[in-house]
Amino acid sequence: MSASIDQVFAKQFQSEVHDAYQRQGSKLRPTVRSKGGVRGASTMFPVVGHGTAAAKARNGTVPVMNLSHSNVECFLQDYYAGEWIDRLDELKTNIDERQVVANAGAYALGRKTDELIIAALDTATNEAVGTAAGTTDTDGLTKAKVLKAFEMLGAADVPDDGNRFAIVGWKQWSELLQIEEFANSNYVGDADLPWKGTQVKRWLGATWMPHSGLTRSGSLRFCYFYHRTAVGHAVAQEVSTDITWHGDRAAYFVNNMMSQGAALIDPAGVVRMRAAE
Asked: Sorted alphabetically, which InterPro entries does this protein's record hold (predicted)?
């Protein structure tokens, strides 16, 4: 056996893990503000306040907006997903064991990425609830609740620039499909299905998608309507793989790892929709 065969194996495996993570690992990372190349245990996301324009007197000084500046700190955490690959097991199976383990590790880290983003969303305080029919905690995800969240984002001057997203549980996705404006192709046509082959729709100027990992508190599922810039995701180490041969086990140990974090940047840009489930 060539002395360099392990290096070829390791490089190919790491490439497969990275590709799997990019392809199906995280559903929510593309929906938030992501920052890579972080050095240190934490990073800062700058927050700039709203400016106000004013008139200027002839030959007078230009009015200053006096924008407020602040920072939101995002702490990074390290995560690992390891597995053994027995050298002789690969000879006894009719599947590519390396590819299976690569996908499993990438998906595990992808789910962790989504968990971090969901945990950040859970710190939001704006909620589309009330006493009107269809907006109470005894209701599922109703049209009234969705429209109230839509109204709240608009009232907060959250940009309607194509970067709004809404994530809901699978039960709530089924409830949305009972709303004609959401399900009927006359309202949401083929052009509003941006990710082909994935359950995603564009409606009310936002990209809607179902997710199985949203927080459930008692009988309530927390769904969110938010703008991309309202949540920050930081990366110190992208998904990487370390592979070592253990002769005493006659197996490779595959260690997938990453260092990431997430934080709520602008609470006004996130609205929680509590749905009975």
From this structure: Phage_capsid_2 (IPR045565)
